[in-house]
Amino acid sequence: MRALIQKAGEQLIRRRFTGVPDLTAGLYASLVEYLAETGALQTGPFDGTACKGATLEDIADDKIRNFLLMARQERHYVLSEKASTLDVLTHLNLLAQGRPSHAAILLFGREPQRFLITSEVKCMHFHGTEVHKPIPSYQIYRGTVFELVNQALDFVMSKINRAVGTREHSVQAPVTYELPEQAVKEAIVNAVAHRDYTSNASVQVMLFADRLEVWNPGHLPPSLTMERLRRPHASIPHNPLIADPLFLVRYVEKAGSGILDAITLCRQAGLPEPDFRQDGGQFVMTIWRNWLTAQVLENLNLNDRQEKAITYVREKGRIGNAEYQVLASSTKKTASRDLDDLVRKKVFAKFGTTGRGTYYRLSSKGDMKGTKGTLPSEIKSEVKGDIKGTNRTRGILKRSKRKGSQRARRAYRPSRRRG
Question: CA–CA separation, 149 vs 398, rounded Å?
Answer without folding.
Answer: 56
